[in-house]
Amino acid sequence: MNQKPDPAAPVITIDGPSASGKGTISALVARALGWQMLDSGALYRLVAYAALKHSIPLNDVAGLERLARKLNARFETRLNGRETTIYLDDENVTTAIRSEKCGNAASTVAAIPQVRTALLDRQRAFQQLPGLVADGRDMGTVVFPGAALKIFLTASAQERAKRRYKQLMEKGANVNLADLFNEIAERDLRDSQRATAPLKPANDAVELDTTHMTIPAVVEYILKLYRERQ
Ligand code: DC
């Protein structure tokens, strides 16, 4: 996507830790408003996937920066935002980039400042009319500091591990709740302690603890906050 961002397009940013429900919530908010959505984590996952595929070591900063700059990725959304297919060089990688291996590699490449800078313009280009819901870790702090509404979603690590467990079990995966909890806690630590664009709420973000909230309640609350600001 080489388009220039459209400053007239409103942005809602939804940041938060792994498995906080950002992806689901962002998709539902975007659908309710008829806006587009940016899944920024998918971009880091794509860089990680390309690195693993081309055997580029995860500490080869120059190699990873080059990959991020020339990433030939395409997001195809259908059914009014209900389904997105992600292509990398015409390969359908929608499922492959969701593996835990790719997620962990993504968290490693995402800690490299050069990779983050290389992905900035690509992310900002998603700001198009009628509006954008941007999901990630630094959407409100770095990528869209002027967003109309910034949300920071949290939930206890235990609750997030339970949600991920349920999701993976439904897909037929053989997973262990204790392992998932440890992985989530490890990734939280890496994402929040890195020097560049660490996971943290923007000063003007609304923090929302969803541990005891249902998905529709969270979506409604975000839509209400946005309406109040218009
Ligand atoms: O949201 P996710 O699990 O798909 O993200 C994968 C990794 O990418 C995650 O470990 C942190 C990183 N990430 C990031 O650093 N900044 C973003 N805006 C989105 C994701």
* SS strand fraction: 15-25%
Structural class: alpha/beta
CATH superfamily: P-loop containing nucleotide triphosphate hydrolases
Counting H and I runs of at least 4 residues, what is the number of helices?
9
Query: What is the number of E strands?
Result: 8
Mean pLDDT: 93
Q: Kindly identify the CATH topology.
A: Rossmann fold
User: What small-molecule ligands were found?
Assistant: 2'-deoxycytidine-5'-monophosphate
- How would you write the strand order of the largest sheet? 2-6-1-7-8
Terminal CA distance: 29 Å
Largest sheet, in brief, is: 5 strands, parallel
Overall 3D geometry? globular
Highest CATH level, the class: Alpha Beta
Describe this structure in words.
- There is one protein chain.
- With 230 residues, this protein is α/β, with parallel strands linked by helices.
- The protein has a single domain, classed as Rossmann fold (3-Layer(aba) Sandwich).
- 47% of the residues lie in helices and 17% in strands.
- It has helices at residues 22-33, 40-53, 61-69, 100-109, 113-124, 139-143, 157-170, 177-193, 215-229, and strands spanning 11-15, 36-39, 73-78, 83-88, 91-92, 132-136, 149-154, 206-209.
- The strands form 2 sheets. The chain has a 5-stranded parallel sheet with strand order 2-6-1-7-8. It has a 3-stranded antiparallel sheet with strand order 3-4-5, covered by helices on one side.
- β3 (73-78) and β4 (83-88) form a beta hairpin.
- The longest helix has 17 residues, at 177-193.
- The chain is globular and about 50 Å long.
- The chain starts with 10 loop residues before the first strand and ends with a helix.
- The mean pLDDT is 93.
- The structure holds 2'-deoxycytidine-5'-monophosphate.
- Residues 18, 40-41, 44-45, 103, 106-107, 110, 136-138, 187, 191 line the site of 2'-deoxycytidine-5'-monophosphate.
